Amino acid sequence: MLQKIIIYSSVLFTFINCSSQKQRRTDGEKLTTVKTKDIMPMSNTRQHLIYFKEGENKFLQDYQMNVTFKGITEDSRCPKGVNCMWAGAAVAQIQVMGTHTRPMTLNISTVDNKSRNYSSSTEFNGYLISLEDVTPYPESSGGTKALAGKYTIGIRIQKSGENAATTK
After folding, report:
1. Is residue 28 within 8 Å of 20, Cβ to Cβ?
2. What distance in Å separates the CA atoms of residue 159 and residue 162, rounded to the nearest whole number?
3. Are 141 and 82 in contact (CB under 8 A)?
4. DSSP, res 159
5. Does the predicted model carry a pTM greater than 0.70?
6. N or C terminus of the chain with fewer C-beta within 10 Å?
7. Rounded to whole angstroms, what are the CA distances from 92 to 23, 130, 154?
């Protein structure tokens, strides 16, 4: 009898846990499903980029992955009209989750710089995810604080091991 109660309780808790995970998405959150063929090529250098606004979440059906652009954690790019010693970098924080994997937070940068722990691309679930575009660009008058919440990024996703020159 005690074994039946334990088994019944564990099954009940499993179902409760599953239903609570489905309800975690708030009413304000909107999940967008995007297919690769729906991505409009911009120009030769921006071809096949997937754009995200800050806080935006998309399910990329062709890659079977959910991507959320959490925000820009660092923007040290040299403002327009200013002469700088270093061009700087912007670091985007994105959360990725495959259909059979747990969420993973990635920090990808506009430049590769191992000494500062910056990488412009990273692998996830057999795909190489690269940060290709970050807008808007900082201006000398407002700085990067004025841009908080206004960022848009463009990422490229390709199979790991594919030659980047063939997909651009």
Report:
1. no
2. 6
3. no
4. E
5. no
6. N
7. 28, 11, 10
The tens digit of pLDDT for each residue in 106-134 reads: 999 999 988 888 899 999 989 999 999 98
CB within 8 Å of 152: residues ≥ 6 apart: 51, 52, 53, 54, 133, 134, 135, 136
Taking the C-alpha atoms of residue 131 and residue 111, their distance in angstroms, rounded to an integer, is: 9
The tokens for 141 are 């008058």
Q: How far apart are CA 111 and CA 120, in angstroms?
A: 5
What pLDDT was estimated at residue 54? 92
pLDDT digits (tens, 9 = 90+) for 86-111: 888 889 999 999 988 999 999 999 99
Query: ∠47-71-146 over CA atoms, to 5°?
Result: 100
Q: Which of 161, 82, 166 is nearest to 121 (CA)?
A: 161
Closest CA relative to residue 122, chosen from 147, 105, 99 = 105
Bridge-partner residues for 87, per DSSP? none
